[in-house]
Amino acid sequence: TSESDPKEPSSRDTSFLVPRGRFSVTKRCDQRGSKRTVAAKLVNKKLLRRDQVLQEIRLLQTLDHPNLVRLLDTYEIANSYVLVLEMADQGRFLDYIVSWGNLTEEKAALYLREILEALRYLHNWGIAHLDLKPENIVVEHVSSQPVIKLTDFGDAVQLSPTSSYFHPLLGSPEFSAPELVLGQPASLMSDIWSLGVVTYVVLSGASPFLDESLEETCLNICRLDFSFPEDYFQGVSAAARDFVCLLLQSEPERRPSAASCLREPWLQPRGVANTGSATFNHTQASQNHPASHLDTSRLISFIERRKHQNDVRPVDAIKAFLHTRLLYHI
């Protein structure tokens, strides 16, 4: 191993570890030489082909943005390909929100702006993440300020304007766009839908489409069957709910781009509103961001449920069922 290689991953301090993925496990390690704390993503050779891992590595090597986790090094051991990544010292996004508390709409909007900055950068390069979910959003403190970062590019792909890409779905489709659930071509707007679901979860601690079975969850997604129960959304502004609805539109072409989302009034920092002029509109900004704290108690059970979720059935297997139910409205 080279001087920059990390030590063998140990079980030391597992509080910030990403849960075991479908094909990999990520561990906290120390780099030899620099003693820097890093994240080592071990991809099981038996579960993923070399060319699939290389695709993720090549993509990561081209990316450079403050809201994306950087690839530092790669190497290979007997049973795994190892990707050495930046360590986000505050851990997973939802864990961070729960541990720090005092979540307001203004804070939520600031966090979501950073995710959208990452998506705008990726989408400008024609890259769709295609696995945007809370577990793939992490937090790092820089100068005592939280910086939100996207990670895990195992499903990401550079889309071509001349050909369609059909993304295979495995496991829970909870954050997946209708076009992916139905086996239709993926698009950059598939990420925008996923961000809409993430926004709903952050605001309420509940999942908008989750049902008792994989089949019913998929039907809810395809039928756009969700609501804002008052006991979950008490104190959440109309502007926040409207932002969720803007992103959760069945037709990909009707969803706004990441750049357009960043111009939405609800996402503007307090004291700045998108009025089309250079002047600040304090009244509008205050209306967009009520000062009341959001209830994060339900996020604790949401996080626990996601930790123990291990359904890896291919969603493709229920495609015929979905088309039949949707065709006959049953």
TrEMBL record:
Q: Which Gene3D superfamilies match?
A: Phosphorylase Kinase, domain 1, Transferase(Phosphotransferase) domain 1
Task: Fetch the PROSITE patterns from UniProt.
Answer: PROTEIN_KINASE_DOM, PROTEIN_KINASE_ST
* TM stretches of this protein: none
GO molecular function term, any single one: protein serine/threonine kinase activity
Q: Which UniProt keywords apply?
A: ATP-binding, Kinase, Nucleotide-binding, Serine/threonine-protein kinase, Transferase
GO CC, alphabetical: nucleus
Q: Where is the Protein kinase domain?
A: 12-267
Q: Which GO terms describe its biological process?
A: intracellular signal transduction; positive regulation of apoptotic process
Q: Which SMART domains match?
A: S_TKc
Please give the InterPro entries that the UniProt record associates with this protein: Kinase-like_dom_sf, Prot_kinase_dom, Ser/Thr_kinase_AS
Q: What is this protein called?
A: Protein kinase domain-containing protein
